[in-house]
């Protein structure tokens, strides 16, 4: 399945770490604008297939090679584009190209040929920026970007621009907010009007009001509200977050594809959903205003209470992001710092940072693990970023 997601990074920290006898200790590196960071707002991070870290800030793009930062000045006709906010990035490995969503359009950097090109987004307004949440390429070769203010766009090589997706596909019954693809290349769209399925070969939409292909989960009236997120687990369960009009909080459902059964999880009240992912044991984590853990059958096996005196050790009022690492740990970025879930102890513990012997208080907003095991953490309340490295203890 192809899942589109967004990363948000207002500033950064790098944390490399290693594990010894089930225990983890961490060595962190603290970076500020004095070390070469261009701006204290880091919006997007990407580690490319060559191991380079790209840092999208509110004032342009930087490249970090592990030693120093370099500002990327795009050799374009309009030099001001280089200083725009970087909203999100995507690496097209097959084409050796990095796609960078700026405020006024998208820059394509071919790192093999060292060439830059700027492509506008034909949003139909006379002027103004375009809020883009994601860029990705599907299995048909379409390069998508989804706008949080408009709709979805596909790159048109004939026009050298991102054009409304309706130039290539029929129009969906609502504004597209999320996109998944199945093994046949068909699309499951989350829209402002609910879930819909698009058969790519027949060029046919199915949704609740017109379920022409008789897809069982589209017969559910629960799936007719604005979709926040959709996740398809490896065990064949759809986890869907929707926000019905007039309601104070999102609704959350599971749909078991094999059993053709829907399970509401309203009593769990997860609120704003930040991330859904599966760990190495095929358990599904739902991270939002609460942290929920489901086994591979979809059974809720744990609700991790947000109380510091419980065995989970969680203490926060706002969740920003969550990320599993390659060692089986789960990292949470919250308004009360960074928490790490240790699989052996089955509990979270907070990670504290010191500067000149004093504790650094910060609100991490997102997390990214690179291939070498380093963890990059961003935050928006300081002019710095950190690298966290597990180090043998």
How does the SSE layout of this entry go?
Layout: E1 13-20, E2 23-32, E3 42-47, E4 53-57, E5 60-64, E6 69-71, E7 88-92, E8 97-101, E9 105-110, E10 115-120, E11 132-137, E12 143-147, E13 152-156, E14 161-164, E15 176-181, E16 187-191, E17 194-199, E18 204-207, E19 226-232, E20 237-243, E21 251-256, E22 261-264, E23 275-278, E24 284-287, E25 291-294, E26 300-304, E27 319-324, E28 330-334, E29 337-342, E30 347-351, E31 353-355, E32 358-360, E33 364-369, E34 374-379, E35 384-390
Parallel strand pairs: 1-35
Antiparallel strand pairs: 1-2, 1-34, 2-35, 3-4, 4-5, 5-6, 7-8, 8-9, 9-10, 11-12, 12-13, 13-14, 15-16, 16-17, 17-18, 19-20, 20-21, 21-22, 23-24, 24-25, 25-26, 27-28, 28-29, 29-30, 31-32, 33-34, 34-35
Using brief descriptors, characterize the structure shown.
single chain; 393 residues; mainly beta; Methylamine Dehydrogenase, Chain H; five-stranded mixed beta sheet; four-stranded antiparallel beta sheet; 35 strands; disordered N terminus
Explain this structure to me?
Residues 1-11 and 17-24 have low confidence and may be disordered. This protein has strands at residues 13-20, 23-32, 42-47, 53-57, 60-64, 69-71, 88-92, 97-101, 105-110, 115-120, 132-137, 143-147, 152-156, 161-164, 176-181, 187-191, 194-199, 204-207, 226-232, 237-243, 251-256, 261-264, 275-278, 284-287, 291-294, 300-304, 319-324, 330-334, 337-342, 347-351, 353-355, 358-360, 364-369, 374-379, 384-390. Strands 1, 2, 33, 34 and 35 form a five-stranded mixed β-sheet that branches. The protein is built from no helices and 35 strands. The protein has a single domain (13-390), classed as 7 Propeller (Methylamine Dehydrogenase, Chain H). The chain has 393 residues and is mainly β.
